Amino acid sequence: MSVALDILSWLLIASGCIFMVIGGIGLVRLPDLYSRFHAAGITDTAGVGLILVGIMFQAGFTLLTVKLIFILMFVLFTSPTATHALARAARLDGLLAWRRSEHNDSEPNSSPS
Questions:
Q1: φ, ψ (nearest 5 deg) of residue 63
Q2: Model-level pTM?
Q3: Sign (positive or negative) of CA dihedral 37, 42, 45, 50
Q4: Which segments of 1-113 does DSSP mark as H helices, in order?
Q5: Which residues, 6+ apart, have CB-to-CB distance to 42 below 8 Å?
Q6: Alpha-carbon torsion angle 100, 101, 102, 103, nearest 10
Q7: How many angstroms separate the CA atoms of 109 and 78, rounded?
Q8: Alpha carbon distances (Å) from 26 to 76, 107, 108
């Protein structure tokens, strides 16, 4: 049973790390602020959640697991809320979403001349 829990925990930790790397690539590759918020918010929450659950399996049922559950709940509430608040503030400030134009695909919010 211990070997199965070790394998499961390391699979969860590895998949959480993969989520975090994919989110980092999304932050660099995506064209505008809103899609970057999307990549950061989802992969950050999923990646940290998977890593914390994997650490919980490694720790067993101890006081450390209870603390990790509180950290997980904090991340699950604050990360999406912060992402939403930042995106809403950007929208209220007038930042438009990126749209593909016919003439230039590389510049965000570019209009044809």
A1: -65, -30
A2: 0.80
A3: negative
A4: 2-29, 33-59, 63-92
A5: 23
A6: -120
A7: 30
A8: 20, 17, 16
Residues 6+ apart with CB under 8 A from 26: 35, 36, 38, 39, 40, 43
pLDDT in tens, 13-63: 999 999 999 999 988 998 888 889 888 888 889 999 999 999 999 998 899
Q: Copy the structure tokens of residue 13.
A: 């930790």
**Which residue type, as a one-letter code, is found at position 52?**
L
Q: To 10 degrees, the CA torsion angle through 14, 19, 22, 23?
A: -140
**The two structure tokens encoding residue 73:** 């709940």
HSE-CB for 7 with a 13 A CA cutoff: 4
Tokens of 75: 């991340």
Average pLDDT value for the chain: 87
